[in-house]
């Protein structure tokens, strides 16, 4: 070619994440009401279950510490709101962009790659999750439900939970055929939300197999991690939870990339 | 610009493209013609470096799409068959954000977006939502968007399908301007008039293979007669009557609603038809067009 | 053509419903599988998670649980009533906008002799059937677990739950018919459904909220439904109060029906 026109270099991975995030931010300005109210959900649950139901319950023992019921439920709400937010973003929203809006098709007609798309979508979910998480932690602090400086780390922990679930669920979403398939997501989401030692201690399951099963589910790891950080009752299990969630997220990311390749680059 | 040798594409057991050779030169307007399912869109997606090649060799702008996908796409403009506009962005942002995907800096992006809005006659609609645009406006926006990176090669997959006649002429005019500006165009279409108007050279594809190649005039000269007589009889009579006039032309094509008799002298055919006592409801003598070539190569022909 | 054409004027309300029976039957056949999860499985998770497991940590003290002898018995009547509300709102948000804007079934129905009122009635009747069947199955499933104190109370409680569903169905239908974009539904769920579900006395006695919030809760139709449903299930009926609950729920439903019909007339009449 003899053209001397300047063709910009294809974007770096970070540059690509920046422009896709710019796109998401631009569209999101239209939905600011949804954004602003999104953070209220865990607060409602905290007031209702934590305070309302909490008056019917004495304190719980957690890792050898006595914690009030509200202080017990609050970190779980932090974890589950990261979980619920990640699921919403990476299932419905991704499915819509993938199948109906054909958004990723248009992005891939440019120098962007499937890896750029996967990373940026997940990043976007976490940016939003981080804002919600920070706001919720402030509410907790204001209500006197934070009992340790370790709580500062509960924010990155919440983002980690969001990342792990976003990546895996986005990968699973690529297998979905129609919106009817989302019932299966509800079928997994609600029991995880209710049964991951969110509203009651894991001792409710006795000491048998059931308890063990609950303890290896990812949301349980996330809930306990947040609870250990905000109450300051840390244990080695915290480290395991972190490793668990990081590995889960990375595996999910690999899955998403491969699936987007097979779906979009046909 | 594009060079393909034995290019194939298969999806599982189904072979959409079965080994084609194509050479597109700089500055020309090149067309892929063919019925639905001929393999045009699969070929276009391979050229757009978003669909891996199943076999054969493909070079775009001298590069291998399997290795240099992003670098190739950086210099392509793609207008896909279905508009893939970003419904959550307004008209201006569709151009601006898309430009940013190419790594074009903000100021340049903004400037080009303004220019392209002008080009697509959408300046007044800059702040409008995409879903409020008419079909023609969306198509023009998609084409404008494909120009944001000042591409060397522009791929247009059925650019005017679904547009009203006015909108098609507006679009053709815009494509002529681009061609004059030196942009290489690759177009797929199943509108023959569009191919005749726009393409310098074209290939006719059928069932994944290339059936013919050349300029529109060459193809007509090679594959059709000078004139065509069109005869319309009553409903359901065409098949039976075809037998009685087979010898009047070099070839007779039976369409559901009419008979086409290919001959160098159409008027002569008509008078022979009348001499044989046949009374068509309507007749027309015209020059051969690309449509006749297309029917011949991809359609059902009774006599050759 | 010699066919005689009837010029009967508008259809009777009953005829309007009958003519749409097959349409809604087809909708049901297509969606009931997914409906099972939202109708039965999800609330069952709540009963097990909150009623049984969390309930294991709550003392069954009638003085603190409005007369219930276990937390499970306390929350079941409220949960079912809340569920009726959620289902009804689910049927009258996205599906209504779908009929107007996306799959446009209302446009097709409008082109027939059906009046807008008939379209609203059929949609609400479908919602009624879904809510009534879901609540009935639910009440039957729960009956062996010692949460009902009389044989007749649960039947009336079921009627209450259906009424709660209709009160919300009519009102929300009217809102959906007037709404231009589906963005608002997100707000209805976040600022309406979730707080109602959490603060209308389903999970805990509203007096735990403190006097101001408790009075606020008493103003919501859901609280009236939850309280009536509970007093019937626990066989602790305060008749004057029950009458008040009934009046409120019926009143909201009737007013909601007019609001729904006028909403659709405004929306579709302009086209």
Describe the structure.
The complex is a heterotrimer of chains A (266), B (304) and C (271). Chain A has helices at residues 13-28, 32-38, 40-52, 69-100, 103-108, 114-142, 154-173, 182-195, 209-215, 218-231, 236-264, and strands at 60-62, 65-67. Chain A is mainly α and 266 residues long. The model of chain A has no long low-confidence stretch (mean pLDDT 88). In chain B, helix 3 (91-101) crosses helix 4. The model of chain B has no long low-confidence stretch (mean pLDDT 87). Chain B has helices at 40-47, 65-73, 91-101, 106-119, 135-146, 165-180, 192-198, 216-223, 238-245, 266-275, 290-298, and strands spanning 2-11, 14-24, 29-33, 55-60, 76-79, 153-157, 184-189, 201-206, 209-214, 227-232, 251-254, 259-263, 282-287. Chain B has a 6-stranded mixed sheet with strand order 5-6-7-3-8-9, with helices on both faces. A 4-stranded antiparallel sheet of chain B has the order 11-12-10-13, with helices on one face. A 3-stranded antiparallel sheet of chain B has the order 2-1-4, with helices on one face. Chain B contains 11 helices and 13 strands. The longest helix of chain B has 16 residues, at 165-180. Chain C is built from 11 helices and no strands. In chain C, helix 3 crosses helix 10 (221-233). The longest helix of chain C is centred in the N-terminal third of the chain and has 34 residues, at 21-54. The two termini of chain C are 32 Å apart. The model of chain C has no long low-confidence stretch (mean pLDDT 87). Chains in contact: A-B, A-C.
């Amino acid at each position: 070619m003899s053209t001397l026109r300047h063709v910009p270099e294809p974007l770096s991975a970070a540059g690509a994440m920046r422009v896709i995030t710019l796109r998401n931010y631009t569209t999101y300005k239209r939905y600011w009401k949804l954004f602003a109210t999104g953070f209220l959900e865990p607060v409602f649950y905290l007031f209702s279950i934590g305070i309302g139901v909490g008056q019917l319950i004495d304190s719980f023992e957690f890792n050898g510490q006595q914690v009030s019921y509200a202080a017990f439920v609050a970190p779980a709400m932090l974890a589950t709101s990261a979980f619920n937010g990640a699921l919403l973003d990476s299932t419905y929203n991704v499915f819509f962009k993938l199948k109906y809006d054909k958004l990723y098709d248009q992005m891939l007609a440019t120098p962007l790659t499937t890896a750029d798309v996967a990373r940026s979508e997940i990043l976007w979910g976490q940016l939003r999750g981080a804002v919600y998480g920070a706001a919720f932690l402030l509410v907790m602090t204001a209500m006197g439900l934070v009992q340790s400086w370790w709580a500062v780390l509960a924010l990155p922990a919440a983002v980690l939970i969001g990342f792990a679930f976003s990546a895996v669920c986005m990968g699973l979403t690529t297998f979905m055929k129609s919106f009817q398939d989302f019932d299966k997501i509800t079928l997994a989401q609600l029991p995880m939300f209710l049964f991951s030692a969110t509203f009651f201690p894991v001792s409710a399951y006795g000491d048998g197999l059931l308890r063990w099963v609950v303890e290896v589910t990812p949301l349980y790891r996330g809930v306990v991690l947040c609870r250990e950080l905000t109450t300051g009752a840390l244990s080695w299990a915290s480290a395991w939870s972190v490793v668990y969630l990081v590995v889960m997220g990375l595996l999910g990311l690999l899955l998403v990339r491969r699936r987007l390749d097979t779906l979009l680059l046909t | 610009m594009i060079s393909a040798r034995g290019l194939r594409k298969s999806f599982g057991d189904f072979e959409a493209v079965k080994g084609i050779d194509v050479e597109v030169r700089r500055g020309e307007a090149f067309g892929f013609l063919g019925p639905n399912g001929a393999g045009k869109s699969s070929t276009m997606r391979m050229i757009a470096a978003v669909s891996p090649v199943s076999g054969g060799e493909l070079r775009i702008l001298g590069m291998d799409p399997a290795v240099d996908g992003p670098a190739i796409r950086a210099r392509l403009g793609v207008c896909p068959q279905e508009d893939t506009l970003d419904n959550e962005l307004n008209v201006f942002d569709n151009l601006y954000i898309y430009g940013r995907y190419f790594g074009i800096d903000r100021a340049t992006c903004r400037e080009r977006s303004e220019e392209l809005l002008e080009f697509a006659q959408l300046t007044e609609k800059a702040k409008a939502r995409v879903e409020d645009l008419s079909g023609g406006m969306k198509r023009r926006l998609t084409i404008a968007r494909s120009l944001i990176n000042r591409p060397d090669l522009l791929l247009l997959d059925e650019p005017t399908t679904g547009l009203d006649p006015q909108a098609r002429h507006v679009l053709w005019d815009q494509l002529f301007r681009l061609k004059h500006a030196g942009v290489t165009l690759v177009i797929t279409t199943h509108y023959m008039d569009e191919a005749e108007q726009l393409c310098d050279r074209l290939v006719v594809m059928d069932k994944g293979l290339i059936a013919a190649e050349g300029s529109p005039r060459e193809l007509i000269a090679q594959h059709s007669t000078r004139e065509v007589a069109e005869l319309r009889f009553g409903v359901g009579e065409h098949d039976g009557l075809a037998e009685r006039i087979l010898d009047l032309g070099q070839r007779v094509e039976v369409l559901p609603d009419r008979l086409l008799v290919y001959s160098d002298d159409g008027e002569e055919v008509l008078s022979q038809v009348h001499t044989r006592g046949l009374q068509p409801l309507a007749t027309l003598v015209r020059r051969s067009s690309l449509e006749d070539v297309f029917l011949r190569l991809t359609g059902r022909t009774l006599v050759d | 053509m010699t066919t005689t054409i009837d010029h009967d004027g508008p259809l009777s309300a009953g005829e309007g419903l009958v003519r749409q029976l097959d349409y809604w039957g087809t909708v049901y056949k297509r969606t009931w599988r997914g409906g099972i999860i939202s109708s039965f499985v999800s609330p069952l998770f709540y009963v097990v998670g909150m009623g049984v497991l969390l309930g294991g940590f709550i003392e069954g003290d009638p003085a603190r649980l409005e007369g219930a002898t276990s937390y499970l018995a306390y929350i079941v009547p409220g949960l079912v009533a809340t569920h009726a509300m959620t289902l009804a709102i689910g049927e009258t948000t996205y599906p209504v906008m779908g009929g107007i804007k996306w799959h446009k079934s209302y446009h097709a129905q409008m082109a027939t002799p059906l009046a807008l009122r008939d379209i609203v009635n059929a949609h609400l009747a479908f919602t009624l059937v879904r809510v009534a069947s879901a609540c009935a199955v639910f009440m039957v499933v729960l009956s062996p677990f010692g949460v009902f104190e009389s044989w007749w109370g649960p039947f009336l409680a079921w009627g209450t739950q259906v009424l709660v569903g209709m009160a919300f169905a009519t009102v929300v239908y009217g809102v959906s018919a007037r709404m231009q974009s589906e963005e608002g539904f997100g707000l209805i769920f976040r600022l309406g459904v979730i707080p109602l579900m959490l603060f209308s006395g389903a999970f805990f006695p509203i007096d735990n909220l403190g006097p101001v919030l408790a009075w606020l809760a008493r103003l919501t139709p859901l609280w009236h439904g939850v309280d009536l449903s509970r007093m019937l299930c626990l066989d602790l009926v305060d008749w004057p109060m029950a009458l008040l609950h009934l009046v409120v729920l019926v009143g909201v439903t009737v007013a909601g029906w007019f609001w729904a019909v006028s909403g659709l007339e405004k929306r579709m009449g302009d086209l």
